[in-house]
């Protein structure tokens, strides 16, 4: 299909939804294009449903058939059926009826796509991610002014306004001395955090549009998209997206690659990396990045998730409940002991418990870690996916839910997370550098017959209050929440017994 023709205006049509790095999926795309005489075959970005990709989506006259990970021969048959004038329902995973002018992916009754709602994810897997006609630019006509009364909170650990109102940061940057700059922080090293990658793969122009809108609001002439140096495929994809809309965006970001280190994804550590510092570590605050950021300039740092929410709010502010404590939606990647991870989108009035319907758990559910590698351990997911509810439950807000099965030993699991924190922290502050070591040692002592639960909790309180970096502040959270939920298992280990039977060599 030629660029410049909106896929929303074409029927019949075949879309192939796949991750931008999935080069092996080219076999399916090539097979279909070779077979097609009159049917356009469009490669879209990912949907977030990893286990279904490449996902072939065949549409004709208000009906869409879904085929998860088909063989090239099956894909060719799909094209043949469409060219014969029928919808290829035979062997389809789902067939959905919808309006002929639908602009977002139709929702099947089952599977990851059916969970939650698809707002910022709505066109991921449905629209050509590199076609400007599919993504009307709002930043050239309107700025983020319409977002100021909504109360949108920043999303993700890479956001300098994580769980805080974004407009407070914008106002600070706009009023500070110097020329502002806007940064989209997308440097992620952990496989379980996929939300920003899904957005940048499936809706890069929407994210770029959100960046430009914020830049217009704060008066910035410069913007940066900060990526992991290992994500060369994403770098190329974004370069194509930027080139496609360079003449339409009021601000064209530059791409900067940062180190493949977990600590380099923290907001102020990202600034250090972009400035070329030899040692990547978070900065002492105050001043905040909005006051003194990249090269001393006022800097707004958000994740792609936040910028996508900003654009959505500009396009449809009525979709946001300004009275809600955490307006908008949250992207959640469901990972852990699952057949395939999935990224879904949940409204604030839903429950995290629905994430279990988005994936196939291997084994029986035992617990979940909510909020990334240093999130909180819980038996129950009956909590709203809002910043306030998650924090009140002692859980994290980074947009990851790891479902862990009953083969897991909770003591071993949180021990691994504590060791991760002790090796990945920057070493700049004593609570982060020494506190993570003490935490790891206290967990090792459990295997030697000593459980000092009160000491662990007190250490956790000190680290959370006084650490300069997020790693130091959040490192105790998996341990303390696990003790709250599974204290008998910790006592069993101190008595020389692992209830799950996985720690026999340590006991």
TrEMBL record:
Note whether Disulfide bond occurs among the keywords: no
Looking at the record, the residues that make up the NADH-ubiquinone oxidoreductase 51kDa subunit iron-sulphur binding domain are 411-456
Highest taxon of the lineage = Archaea
Q: Which of UniProt's keywords are assigned here?
A: 4Fe-4S, Iron, Iron-sulfur, Metal-binding, Plasmid
Instruction: Please give the Pfam families that the UniProt record associates with this protein.
Output: Complex1_51K, NADH_4Fe-4S
Keyword NAD: yes or no?
no
In its UniProt record, a GO molecular function of this protein is: metal ion binding
What SMART domains does the record point to?
Answer: NADH_4Fe-4S
**Which family is it part of?**
Belongs to the complex I 51 kDa subunit family.
Protein's name according to its UniProt entry: Respiratory-chain NADH dehydrogenase domain 51 kDa subunit
Phylogenetic lineage:
Archaea, Methanobacteriati, Methanobacteriota, Stenosarchaea group, Halobacteria
């Amino acid at each position: 299909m030629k660029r410049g023709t909106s896929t929303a205006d074409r029927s019949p049509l075949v879309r192939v939804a796949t991750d931008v790095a999935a080069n092996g999926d080219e076999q399916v795309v090539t097979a279909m294009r070779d077979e097609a005489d009159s049917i356009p075959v469009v490669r879209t970005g990912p949907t977030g449903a990893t286990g279904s990709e490449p996902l072939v989506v065949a549409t004709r006259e208000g009906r869409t058939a879904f085929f998860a990970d088909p063989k090239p021969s099956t894909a060719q048959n799909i094209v043949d059926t469409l060219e014969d004038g029928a919808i290829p329902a035979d062997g389809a995973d789902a067939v959905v009826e919808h309006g002929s002018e639908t602009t977002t992916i139709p929702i099947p009754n089952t599977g990851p796509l059916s969970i939650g709602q698809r707002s910022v994810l709505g066109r991921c897997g449905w629209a050509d991610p590199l076609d400007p006609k599919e993504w009307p630019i709002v930043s050239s006509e309107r700025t983020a002014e319409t977002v100021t009364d909504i109360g949108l909170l920043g999303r993700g650990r890479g956001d300098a306004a994580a769980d805080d109102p974004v407009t407070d940061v914008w106002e600070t940057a706009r009023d500070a001395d110097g020329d502002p700059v806007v940064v989209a922080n997308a440097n992620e090293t952990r496989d379980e955090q996929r939300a920003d990658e899904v957005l940048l793969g499936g809706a890069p122009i929407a994210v770029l549009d959100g960046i430009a809108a914020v830049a217009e609001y704060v008066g910035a002439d410069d913007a940066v998209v900060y990526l992991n140096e290992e994500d060369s495929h994403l770098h190329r994809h974004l370069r194509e997206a930027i080139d496609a809309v360079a003449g339409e965006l009021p601000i064209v970001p530059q791409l900067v690659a940062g180190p493949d280190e977990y600590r380099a994804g923290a907001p102020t550590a990202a600034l250090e990396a972009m400035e070329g510092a030899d040692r990547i570590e978070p900065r002492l605050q105050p001043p905040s990045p909005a006051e003194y950021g990249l090269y001393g300039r006022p800097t707004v740092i958000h994740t792609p998730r936040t910028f996508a929410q900003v654009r959505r709010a500009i396009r449809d502010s009525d979709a946001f409940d300004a009275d809600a404590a955490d307006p908008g939606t949250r992207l959640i990647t469901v990972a852990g002991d699952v057949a395939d991870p999935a990224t879904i989108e949940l409204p604030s009035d839903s429950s995290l418990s629905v994430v279990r319907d988005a994936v196939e758990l291997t084994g029986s559910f035992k617990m979940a870690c909510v909020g990334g590698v240093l999130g909180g351990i819980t038996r129950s997911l009956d909590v709203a996916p809002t910043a306030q509810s998650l924090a009140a439950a002692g859980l994290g807000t980074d947009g990851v839910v790891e479902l862990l099965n009953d083969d897991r030993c909770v003591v071993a699991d949180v021990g691994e997370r504590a060791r991760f924190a002790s090796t990945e922290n920057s070493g700049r502050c004593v609570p982060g550098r020494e506190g993570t070591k003490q935490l790891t040692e206290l967990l090792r002592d459990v295997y030697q017959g000593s459980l000092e639960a009160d000491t662990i909790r007190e250490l956790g309180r000190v680290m959370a209050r006084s650490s300069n970096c997020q790693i130091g502040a959040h490192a105790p959270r998996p341990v303390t929440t696990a003790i709250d939920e599974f204290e008998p298992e910790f006592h069993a280990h101190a008595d020389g017994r692992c209830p799950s039977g996985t720690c026999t060599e340590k006991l």
